[in-house]
Amino acid sequence: MKIYKYLLSAVLGLALCTSISAQTSYDFGVKGGVSVNMMPGTTALPFDEFEPNIGFQGGLFSTFYLSDNIISQVEFLYARKGVRTVNHTPEAIGSSKDIYARHIHYLQLPLLIGWDSLGGTSLRVVTGPEFGYCLGNHIRTSYGDKKETHFEDEDFFLNKFNLAWAAQATYFFNAALGIDVKFDYGITRTFKESTGDNGRNAGLQ
């Protein structure tokens, strides 16, 4: 059953995007969708079993046509990333599992380059660095029937700036509407070196 849950989470990672042609040399649009996030390498968590952390992302993008098929794409996005761990043998009576989830909020600036097949329906594949700025974070816990949400001082634990590498594929049904899937993986640590945690953001969006 667990593999089906992860497959469903991957499907939710697909994002819709709409594009508006401004000239023949560039276009721009809006995009948004659900994301599936993990944090490989992290250790400073109360439980050992990980589950996908469901977040979301959305914002603006602009595409520049450098030649017939070569493009560059700049995006400005809000993204909620994070990590979720569970304990399936809780001490609380009547609880199926304990949950600890950290949600981290970013502004992101992906600078991408790639290939576009052009035409009425087109396939676009791009890759490049993704720069992130941490806006803050909050933690949600569930221990039995006790549920809490609290905010932490992100300057104490989290690196303010985040660098990742992204790869994205987009299929446009027509000139205005498409669907894309993007995977990004952190190059820099999510937490400050002083915490001793080597976790890096990773997500399917």
Overview of this protein structure:
- There is one protein chain.
- The protein has 205 residues and is mostly beta strands.
- The protein contains two helices and eleven strands.
- Strands 1, 2, 3, 4, 5, 6, 7, 8, 9, 10 and 11 form an eleven-stranded antiparallel β-sheet that branches.
- The longest helix is centred in the N-terminal third of the chain and has 11 residues, at 2-12.
- It is elongated, with a radius of gyration of 19 Å.
- The two termini are 23 Å apart.
For this entry, give a set of tags.
205 residues; mainly beta; 7% helix
Order of helices and strands: HEEEEEEEEHEEE
Q: Please mark out the parts with pLDDT under 50 across 5 or more consecutive residues, or reply none.
A: 1-12
Relative helix content: under 10%
Please report the total strand number as a whole number. 11
Overall pLDDT score = 81
State the separation between the terminal residues, measured CA to CA.
Answer: 23 Å
Which sheet architecture does the biggest sheet show?
Answer: 11 strands, antiparallel
* Structural class by sheet pairing and helices: mainly beta
Give the percentage of residues in beta strands: over 45%
Q: What does the radius of gyration come to? A: 19 Å
Outline type: elongated
Number of helices: 2
